[in-house]
Amino acid sequence: MPSTPRAAIIPVTPFQQNCTLLWCEATKRAAVIDPGGDLDRIQAAIAKAGVTVEKILLTHGHIDHAGGAADLRDALKVPVEGPHQADKPLLDRLPETGSAYGIDGAKVITPDRWLDEGDTVTVGDLTFDVLHCPGHSPGSVVLVSRDVRFAQVGDVLFRGSVGRTDLPGGDHAALIASIKEKLLPLGDDVAFIPGHGPTGTIGQERLSNPFLQ
Fold this sequence. Notes:
There is one protein chain. By secondary structure, the protein is an alpha+beta fold. It has one domain: Ribonuclease Z/Hydroxyacylglutathione hydrolase-like (Metallo-beta-lactamase, Chain A). It contains seven helices and 13 strands. Strands 6-7-8-9-12-13 form a six-stranded mixed beta sheet. It has a five-stranded mixed beta sheet with strand order 1-2-3-4-5, covered by helices on one side.
């Protein structure tokens, strides 16, 4: 019987990014996914859930997803895993990007572990497969639990939309290929938490997402 995942979505930054506190119900071990900022809100959610954070996971290197990662790592004394190494230039420029968007205090973050296609990530007793899904950014990754039919998709896919590709390193054709070749085959019953907006299912997006028709 697979372990049960639990998740709390914590909207952070002026971009209302879905920072996700994801934990294994059996072990109460957790990961913070994409801590873009507003660390007080993230730490309040950790305390409310009564879980122990064992790592920080990054789906990609944009400021609203990674801007708070260095400070949270220092506060929690945990490693950072992800994204794919192709997003290193984005992570190296976080302070400058933050200033441009009015997000102060962002620091450069170098992950303790880069993630690549075929890697696995654990949170407590949960295991996630890593899919490298470039397009929104060169190093975007998606985390998939095939056991419990759940994915954390960052800004690759949204309910009714897809990630923007007009930022440096964006590639619309690559993004659509990532979704069609890697996400849609996961199965219609797979639920996902995106980087912004409401949750969805692969089946719902296959049927109604205008970018995939």
